[in-house]
Specification:
This protein is 36% helix and 13% strand. It is an alpha/beta fold.
């Protein structure tokens, strides 16, 4: 008598369900990666970055998800990185204007430029400025200042009415990307919680210097880029909103450091302009950045230009450019006196940065005094 084989129906169903789940996950994952890749190729910002803080005391806290997202972002960058040979800057022949404007058409993104966007759409005024194009987002800037200035680099004795300044101004120093660090701290992609090497330490030293001459400064010591880098600007926006004054001018200084991908065209550029000699000492150079998406962008440019001119009069060459980023906010809508200040880069040694801090303090005092005396 033949026996009929019993089928394990429950086991069959289980494997069928697992197959369907795996196929669904594979399809969703492929769709997600394909969508991001298309956005990256079209030049849009992709916020998939989670930073690995190797070498820091918090290394053990990095989750598996953080690592996966970091590797995923590296995969996207390597897969869709444009050929550097195509990064050619096309410049207008009109050089009579002292203000040189550049806009970009970009196929690359840069992690430090992630930002929080305001929900309200703002229309940008149409101008007749000379237009430049570039394929590298690292060249996403236009220099708005090329004004003549005194070339004297003699140190100055600064006298300021601190009481009057404190009555009129609310000076705030903060850091959207507080873990950004300098050479020789190369671990964790130049990111650290050690104030001896990072921009948080830069802010602490400038704050201490300003307070020593009587200027009240609020230094927000939040690491807004840790542990979630993608929330950096949202975090710093909230932190700054808590200390704004309704009765004083708010001078908001977001201190960053510049950086570039290894062996990139921008790294080659930085290597040529990373330092300058002032009073026979080597200083790390700086830049100012303005987001043109802000409704107050014209005022922001005007005040960035003021700081740049003061720097050129006191310590010529310390500031390289004023950079305007198309479509960016950088939380600068909070105040007409909001500054995004990049102090040095990953190519600068911390000793060069520390000398720059001394020079920046003098410049900031002059700038603060000027704003205080402006109606």
């Amino acid at each position: 008598m033949k026996r009929k084989r019993r089928r394990n129906k429950s086991g069959t169903r289980f494997y069928m369900m697992m197959s369907i789940v795996c196929l669904t996950v594979l399809f969703v994952g492929y769709s997600y990666v394909y969508n991001l890749s298309e956005k990256r190729k079209s030049g849009q910002d992709i916020t998939t970055i989670s930073i690995l803080y190797n070498g820091d005391s918090n290394e053990g806290k990095t989750s598996a998800i953080d690592k996966i997202m970091s590797y995923f972002n590296i995969f996207l960058e390597r897969t869709f990185k444009e050929n550097e040979s195509s990064n050619k800057l096309i410049e207008s022949a009109d050089k009579s204007n002292t203000e040189v404007f550049k806009t970009i058409e970009s196929n690359e993104t840069e992690e430090k430029d992630l930002e929080i966007y305001n929900e309200r759409e703002e229309k940008k005024p149409i101008t007749n400025t000379p237009i430049f194009t570039a394929n590298n987002i690292h060249e996403d800037f236009f220099k708005i200042i090329e004004s003549p200035a005194s070339r004297s680099s003699a140190p100055r004795n600064i006298i300021i009415d601190a009481a009057s300044v404190n009555e009129k101004l609310n000076v705030v120093i903060f850091h959207t990307h507080g873990t950004e660090a300098y050479f020789p701290h190369v671990e964790g992609n130049y990111r650290s919680h050690d104030e001896k090497y990072n921009v948080m330490g830069v802010g602490s030293k400038i704050t201490s210097n300003l307070k020593s001459i009587g200027i009240d400064v609020t230094h927000l010591k939040d690491y807004n880029d840790y542990p979630d880098y993608n929330s950096s600007y949202a975090n710093s926006s909230y932190a700054v909103s808590q200390v704004l004054s309704n009765s004083k001018k708010n001078i908001l200084i977001d201190i960053h450091r510049d950086g570039a991908e290894e062996n990139s065209s921008y790294e080659q550029f930085l290597s040529r302009v990373k330092t300058t000699i002032i009073n026979d000492k080597t200083a790390a150079t700086c830049t100012l950045v303005v987001g043109d998406k802000n409704g107050n962008s014209e005022e922001l440019k005007k005040n960035a230009q003021l700081l740049f001119n003061i720097s050129e009069q006191m310590y010529p060459g310390l500031f390289r450019d004023v950079i305007v980023r198309p479509g960016a906010y950088f939380n600068q809508y909070y105040s007409d006196y909001a500054l995004l200040l990049e102090v040095g880069s990953t190519l600068n040694h911390i000793d060069e940065v520390n000398y720059t801090i001394e020079l920046l303090t003098d410049i900031m005092v002059e700038y603060i005094d000027e704003i205080s005396n402006t109606n």
